[in-house]
Every structure is written in structure tokens, then in C-alpha cells.
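in:
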């Protein structure tokens, strides 16, 4: 049993509570009691505003190596992808494990307590499996454990280069022989208290309808999350309609993939019918506004999704930015730009997407400060000039940054204290070394 005293805490809804005592038992919250004007004896004091841990529902850890190297040039998603492919070719289980540990440590310091890794870098360059065909996935699991964040490894099915064309070049590392081979490989992965296994369909480009059915039935049988990149690119959305006479979302629906375990990632070009179908199925949508802006994907139908009641979550995806507050307000800013209206999603709704919405999408019983839930919480520390005079409430989502995160507690154990990662230490040096090493190998 441990005791924490939060100066203020967000317990859901429009306001905050003062003097909240959080008692943890093992990895869960045993009691959450507001109104303590001073810390109980022996309590760890959390200054500032305590929130449930943020959940990064969509990540490709190795894309972090592209930050600052791809933004300057002209081009599109498709030219960015060439650089991403170059990075993907230079990683092996050891180097990817080390890089991912540093990326997840940066993520923890930013206030993320769980990550959904949309993992498709499975095999050796050229496509031959490693001796352990899950060597890369297990390296990511070890990396998350070492960095202290929960991981849902969304093991990604990838079979074709584009609507049935065979994979080629860098894509050979991503592809399993067929959907059954993917399923057999994924069934060999073990879970534990901080690691779960889920499934992902890379996209309608990379997976045809029969294979989608295999992934959907695996998810239903194992009761695990199923994610898919969906309608991120307008050209992909339109090509799917031409080839399959259905939108990407309709295609997923026909394959039996749409249910409450399903999360559409991006959904930038979803039609009004798609939004209604996703809402009716009880599915979610993971928005990644900083990556979508970085890649020039477009502004998604954020307002329509929220209005339809689609469960929203957030992801930093390519890690062009690693800041959950920036993702959350990016949704509202995008909605304002697209609709000409302010306050499309209010501050509590944005925080909800950043916390409980992500936990739901990844299958964790977290994201709410309430007894019985996982004891995953963070603090926004006071003191930075850009927070001076800002009300200490959910509205902080419009002003706070990743650098304001002071404490990060996962399963009742401090991972970050006073802005320092307790296990990894100098995250900047470690991350810098891993990225330099990767580009050295690319040549
Ligand atoms: Zn992605």
C-alpha cells in the first residue's frame, strides 16, 4: 500500500478536486479521496495537477528517427515513406530494442503511461524470418518494460504492396507468407501484467478482404483490440472505392472487422456514411493530428466523429511531435479550422480522448482515477512561464506541453520523478546515440 497526495486532480468532468489522496494497492488504485487539505503522513506529494496517464494509442517507434530529417523537403506522404523505408532497413532486434527503449522513455517523460505499437517490422531484410520469428516484437516488449510504460503490441498483418501486388524491397520485412502464418506467429507471443498483444490490419492496400477476415476473427476469438490505418490518404480512399466498390471502412465492415474492439486509425477521409457506420458498430477512431499535419494528409472529420459518439483516442504515430497535449488540442484546432466554430470538443472531452479513450482502444483498465482501476497517473507541474495565470483545470490541455510533466506513475510505481526518467536516466543522450547509429548504418 502506498499513499500519494495530489495538490489538485482531474477526476473527470469539467472541474478538478483539491487535496486528493490516492492510495494504491499493488498496481491498482484502492481509494481516491478528495478534500485532504494537507498530505497524510508518509504520502508522496504531487504538486500541480494530477491526471490519469495519457495513452499513446498509435505509435511506430522507429519513425522517431525521422524527426527533423523529413520535414524540410517538399513532397507528400509517399516521398516521406521512402525515407521511412530507408530507416526500417537498418534495424535488427538488438538495435531496434535499444532505440525503442529510448523512444518509450521519451514517451514516458511526456506523460504517456501506455502505448499501442502498430508493429509491422517483423522479419529480416529480404523477408526471411529471424530464428525466433517474433524477435522484433519481443524486443519491443522488453523495451517497453525497461522504459516503464504499458505496451499493447498491435502485431500488424501486411501482405501486399498495394491491393494485391506482392510486397517488394523494404516491404518484404513487413510481410508474413499469408494470414494463417501471421496468426500462428502472433499466437506465440506471451502477455504479462504490462504487455498485451493485439492485432492490426496495416491498411486496405496491404491486406485483402479474405485476410482481413482472419485478423477480425482472431481479434474476436482472443477478445483483443484490432486496429487499422484507414482512409489516411485521399488517393488510397479513392483507389479502394474503384477497386473494391466500397470505402475502406465498408471493406472492413464486410470482412467482419467492425465492432467495439475496432479502432480506425486516422479516418481523415471518412465519408459521412462511414462515420455513421463506425459509430453504429461501437468502434473507435484514433486521431494523430500532428502527424497528419506533418504529412499533409488533411484534417479529419473530427467534429462529425465526436457528434456521432465515436470513441476517440489519440496517437503520436510518426513522433514528429511527442506531446499528448499537442495531439489533444490539435484535434480541436483542426476542427476549428475545418468548421469555423470554436469549442467543437471541450477540454474534458480532449483529456478523455488522451486518457480513457486510449486505454479503451488498447484494452487497459486505466485512464480514470477511480478505485479498482490501474494506478497510472501523471502530474502537470506548476511553475513554467507559459502556464502562469492559466486556470488549474482541464483547460490546461490548451496550454501545457510534454515538458511540464513532472511525475509519471505506472501501476503504482514512479517511472518519472521531478521530470527525470528513473530507469533510463539521460534519455536525450541515449535517444541521440541510437538515432545517430541508425543513420550511420543507412549510410
Ligand atoms: Zn501509423
Amino acid at each position: 500500500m502506498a499513499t500519494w497526495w495530489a495538490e489538485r486532480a482531474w477526476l473527470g468532468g469539467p472541474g478538478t478536486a483539491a487535496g486528493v489522496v490516492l492510495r494504491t494497492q499493488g498496481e491498482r488504485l484502492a481509494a481516491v479521496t478528495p478534500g485532504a487539505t494537507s498530505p497524510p503522513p508518509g504520502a508522496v506529494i504531487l504538486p500541480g495537477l494530477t491526471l490519469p496517464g495519457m495513452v499513446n494509442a498509435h505509435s511506430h517507434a522507429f519513425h522517431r528517427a525521422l524527426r527533423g530529417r523529413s520535414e524540410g523537403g517538399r513532397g507528400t506522404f509517399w516521398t516521406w515513406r521512402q525515407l521511412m523505408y530507408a530507416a526500417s532497413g537498418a534495424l535488427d532486434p538488438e538495435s531496434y530494442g535499444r532505440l525503442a527503449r529510448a523512444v518509450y522513455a521519451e514517451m514516458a517523460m511526456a506523460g504517456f503511461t501506455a502505448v499501442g505499437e502498430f508493429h509491422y517490422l517483423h522479419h529480416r531484410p529480404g523477408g526471411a524470418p529471424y530464428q525466433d520469428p517474433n524477435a522484433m516484437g519481443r524486443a519491443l516488449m522488453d523495451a517497453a518494460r525497461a522504459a516503464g510504460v504499458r505496451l499493447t503490441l498491435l502485431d500488424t498483418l501486411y501482405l501486399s504492396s498495394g491491393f494485391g501486388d506482392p510486397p517488394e524491397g523494404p516491404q518484404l520485412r513487413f510481410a508474413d507468407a499469408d494470414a494463417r502464418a501471421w496468426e500462428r506467429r502472433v499466437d506465440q507471443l506471451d502477455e504479462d501484467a504490462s504487455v498485451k498483444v493485439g492485432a492490426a490490419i496495416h491498411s486496405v492496400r496491404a491486406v485483402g478482404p479474405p485476410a482481413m477476415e482472419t485478423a477480425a476473427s482472431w481479434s474476436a476469438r482472443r477478445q483483443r483490440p484490432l486496429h487499422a490505418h484507414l482512409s489516411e490518404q485521399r488517393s488510397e480512399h479513392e483507389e479502394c472505392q474503384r477497386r473494391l466498390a466500397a470505402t475502406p471502412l465498408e471493406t472492413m465492415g464486410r470482412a467482419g472487422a467492425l465492432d467495439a474492439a475496432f479502432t480506425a486509425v486516422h479516418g481523415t477521409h471518412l465519408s459521412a456514411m462511414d462515420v455513421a457506420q463506425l459509430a453504429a458498430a461501437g468502434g473507435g477512431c484514433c486521431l494523430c493530428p500532428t502527424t497528419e499535419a506533418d504529412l499533409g494528409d488533411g484534417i479529419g472529420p473530427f467534429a462529425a466523429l465526436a457528434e456521432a459518439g465515436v470513441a476517440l483516442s489519440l496517437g503520436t504515430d510518426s513522433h514528429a511531435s511527442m506531446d499528448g497535449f499537442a495531439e489533444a488540442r490539435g484535434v480541436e484546432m483542426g476542427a476549428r479550422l475545418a468548421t469555423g466554430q470554436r469549442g467543437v470538443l471541450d477540454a474534458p472531452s480532449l483529456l478523455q480522448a488522451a486518457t480513457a479513450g486510449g486505454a479503451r482502444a488498447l484494452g487497459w483498465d486505466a485512464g480514470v482515477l477511480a478505485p479498482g482501476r490501474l494506478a497510472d497517473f501523471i502530474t502537470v507541474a506548476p511553475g513554467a512561464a507559459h502556464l502562469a495565470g492559466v486556470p488549474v483545470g482541464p483547460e490546461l490541455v490548451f496550454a501545457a506541453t510534454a515538458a511540464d510533466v513532472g511525475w509519471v506513475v505506472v501501476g503504482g510505481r514512479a517511472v518519472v520523478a521531478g521530470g527525470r526518467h528513473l530507469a533510463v536516466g539521460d534519455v536525450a543522450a541515449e535517444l541521440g546515440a541510437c538515432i545517430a547509429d541508425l543513420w550511420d548504418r543507412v549510410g
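note: Residues 58, 60, 118, 229, 265, 317 surround zinc ion (CB under 6 Å).
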